[in-house]
Design goal:
Elements lengths: L1 H15 L4 H27 L10 H13 L3 H14 L3 H34 L2 H14 L5
Length: 145
């Protein structure tokens, strides 16, 4: 993704500028986790297989899980959870990820509902309903496009 490429570029530039090695190593770990998560999601989509085909260390699985939980892609979080389960990540950590997944799904549903309300308000031509639907859409994070 663009964010992963940007992070790789930033790490390279920071290393060239003599940035702190500990900070660079943390950034590299985040980059590796993002790349692993992207690979896992790609393997799942292309092969129909799961994360079990590409086993991760528990540490890498936890990093991928944290990145996915902080994002807004429920499918990426599901794939990361599967990889974390396969890697032996703790039940407590997986429970936290499951909570994050539930929230992501609820937010996605709210966004869809807001988009539908906005479309209905636009078609109905009711100014007050349209105003309320726009406010709901903004609150739900509906894109202006």
């Amino acid at each position: 993704s663009g964010n992963t490429a940007a992070l790789a570029d930033a790490i390279s530039q920071a290393a060239g500028a003599g940035a702190d090695e500990e900070l660079l190593e943390e950034a590299r770990a985040v980059l590796r986790s993002r790349e692993t998560l992207a690979e896992l999601a790609g393997a799942d989509v292309r092969t129909g297989g799961g994360a079990a085909e590409m086993p991760l260390s528990p540490e890498d699985a936890e990093e991928a899980l944290a990145i996915a939980a902080a994002g807004d892609n429920a499918r990426a979080l599901e794939v990361a959870m599967e990889a974390a389960r396969d890697a032996g990540v703790s039940a407590e950590t997986l429970a936290g990820a499951a909570d994050a997944l539930e929230i992501l799904r609820e937010l996605a549903e709210a966004k869809v509902n807001a988009e539908q309300a906005l479309a209905a308000a636009l078609l109905g031509g009711n100014a007050k309903l349209l105003e309320a639907a726009v406010a709901l859409a903004e609150e739900a994070g509906v894109d202006e496009d």
